[in-house]
């Protein structure tokens, strides 16, 4: 019981920090050489719980299809799960790559990318409260 009381505030701080880093990366526009997930990073999720694995696979599929908002929400959902340190780092890599593609597409006038950017801004504002 006591452990749970202390775990929640720490988890919230970690999630807030990760979201802040991701938002900073997104708005800074890190360049076109943003890394994508390697096969080794993808393999980190193979032995996860079915829920984590499915959310990860949904995110990857949406990302590959250019469905920015779905990819973002799936990746963001994963950040609220019990991930290993290596999985968190892999998700940060995936989010940086996705964020850069969203930024680039929005700059070219892509309506779906613009909608994803607006959602991300609103999401980050809600988390900052």
Describe how the helices and strands are arranged.
Blueprint: H1 2-28, H2 39-43, H3 50-65, H4 68-78, H5 85-107, H6 111-127
Main beta sheet strand tally, sense and closure: none
Quaternary: single chain
Q: List the helices and strands in order.
A: HHHHHH
How large is the count of helical segments?
6
Commentary on this structure:
This protein is mainly alpha-helical and 129 residues long. The chain has one domain. The chain has helices at 2-28, 39-43, 50-65, 68-78, 85-107, 111-127. The protein is globular. The model is unreliable at 24-35 (pLDDT under 50).
Summarize the structure in short.
The chain is 77% helix and 0% strand. It has 129 residues and is mainly α. The radius of gyration is 15 Å and the shape is globular.
